[in-house]
Amino acid sequence: MEWIEKDRIREGVINMFRVNMGVKEGERLLVVTDLPQQEAWQQKDSSQLSEILKRSMLAKMVSEIGLESFPQCTVEFFPYPMVARSGTEPGEEVARRMGEADVVIAITTHSLSHTDARVEACQAGARIASMPGFLAEMFYPDGPMAADYGRIAEETWPLAEMLSQAEKATARSRAGTDISFSLAGRQGGADTGLFHERGSFGNLPAGEAYIAPCEGTGNGQIVVEEGWFRVLEEKMVLHFQDGLVSGVKGGGEVGEMLRDLLGLGKEPMALKGFRPVGGRSTGPGATWLSWVWAPTPTPARPPASWRRRRSGGRSTSPSETTRISAASSQPISTGTSSSPTPT
User: Which of 41, 53, 123, 303: CA 20 to 30 A from 157?
Assistant: First the structure.
């Protein structure tokens, strides 16, 4: 297992604290990570364990760089026992420490995004970057954390506004995704990677305009290509009818697991309280369209400082293979490739 060269990530880490998190003098910074326990050592293979351990070492180095670079801030590193899956509460001590911090960097294997610990910490005022599955290479000078996030914010909010104005949407990909749904009355949001406001939260790397389709309106199919998920070794096709998954074809073991989870072949199962969330990437060379099942909060409006900002730097427009158009009287049609992205 190759360990991380701290000097190669140093500039990217410092920029994350300064640019993405807007760290100010005297603030309390917390870096958390999840460590594999006995069950993980028994169930995961050596390559998976190496990746997990490397991620935890990265978190430790991020805290060290923070301490070295921001001496007038309090920097704490707190590892905790890995939970079974993303969305599982990390424990009372983790929640307490997150709630007492001004800035939280969560470099984890299992996501803290949809946990009460994260929600309550934001309510207490913490600014949180959730970074599950993050790789050290993302901090390199040519990695996604080197993007011009001011420019990303400028280009992402207009896309979110287009989504808010649209009545209908159609998403298509070269792999065969072709699904349409209503957006009537829904508000688009922007994940810009800039968390400067009290209680703000999002993922890093970032650059995404997103919206929740109206329940009961989705019809068509979503094609998930092999490799998008770690153990997905063959293409999987999800068929939608009136907003529900009516069939899952292919996917090997992952497909079997999903069919069992959704109870396909039995009575139809509605996923109450959850929505299929579509996200359009706005990062450099972005060409992907992502879908996850997740609770969808009401998006915040862009801060006035972002709307006024004018910045140069690297262009972050979607590639020529991606086209988005929207108006209140016409649908959005999006054609993308299907390369994966961290979530």
Answer: 123
Predicted confidence at residue 2, as pLDDT, reads: 64
Distance between CA atoms of 198 and 211, rounded to whole angstroms?
23
Q: Evaluate whether 128 touches 108 at the Cβ level (below 8 Å).
A: no
Q: Please give the residue that has the higher pLDDT: either 312 or 117.
A: 117
CA–CA distance from 33 to each of 108, 110, 156, 216, 245 (Å)? Answer: 5, 9, 29, 38, 34
pLDDT tens digit sequence for 131-182 = 999 999 999 999 999 999 999 999 999 999 999 999 999 999 999 999 999 9
pTM recorded for the entire structure: 0.73
pLDDT in tens, 42-86: 888 888 899 999 999 999 999 999 999 999 999 999 999 999 889
Contact 110, 85 (CB under 8 A): yes
Q: Around Cβ 235, how many Cβ atoms within 10 Å?
A: 18
Interatomic CA distance for residues 153 and 207, integer angstroms: 7
What whole-number distance in Å separates Cα of residue 267 and Cα of residue 206?
A: 38
pLDDT in the model for residue 40: 87
- The 3-state DSSP class for residue 269 equals coil
**CATH, range 6-145:** 3.40.50
> What are the residue ranges spanned by the domains of the chain?
6-145, 148-336
- pLDDT above 70 for 339: no
Phi, then psi, of 35 in degrees rounded to 5? -100, 135
Coil vs helix vs strand at 313:
coil
Q: Where do we find the tokens 């899956």?
A: 85
Helices (H), 2-77: 6-15, 38-43, 46-69
By residue count, the chain amounts to: 343
Query: In Å, what is the CA distance from 308 to each residue of 147, 179, 190, 194, 305?
Result: 19, 36, 16, 15, 5
